[in-house]
C-alpha cells in the first residue's frame, strides 16, 4: 500500500489536526514540506484539474493579503499556479494526495472519515 502524501508546512494548525487524525486512525502518510521541498507547476496543474484553482488558492491568508492589488487582479488558473509555486504558503492546507491520485484539500474530520475510511481511496 502506497502511503498518502500530505503537503503543507509543519507549523500550520490544520496540518497538526490532520496529522493527529491520521495518526489516531493508524493511516500511514508521507509529509511533503512545501518550503523545504517546493512544489512544481505540473503538480499544481493536476490538482487544479481535480478540484479547481479556486479551492487550492488560499485567499484568506497573510501571504495573499500582502500581495499588491496588481498581483491580485485578473486572477486565473495560470496566475494562481504561478503565485502558488512562488509562495507555497498560498496553497490551502493540508493537501492530501490519495492513492488514486485524487486530492483532499483542507482538514475536516468528517470528510477524512468519508474519503479515507469508506474505502473510496483504493
In short:
The protein is α+β, with helices and mostly antiparallel strands. It is built from eight helices and four strands.
Instruction: Assign an overall shape.
Output: globular
* Major sheet description: 4 strands, mixed
Domain unit count? 1
The fraction of residues assigned to DSSP E strands is 5-15%
CATH architecture: 3-Layer(aba) Sandwich
Helix content: 40-55%
Order of helices and strands: EHEHHHHHHEEH
Low-pLDDT segments: none
Walk me through what this model shows:
The protein has one domain: Glutaredoxin. 48% of the residues lie in helices and 13% in strands. The protein has 8 helices and 4 strands, in the order E-H-E-H-H-H-H-H-H-E-E-H. It has helices spanning 13-24, 34-37, 41-51, 53-56, 62-65, 69-72, 77-86, 109-117; strands spanning 4-8, 29-33, 95-97, 103-105. Strands 2-1-3-4 form a 4-stranded mixed beta sheet, sandwiched between helices. A hairpin with a 5-residue loop joins strand 3 (95-97) and strand 4. The longest helix has 12 residues, at 13-24.
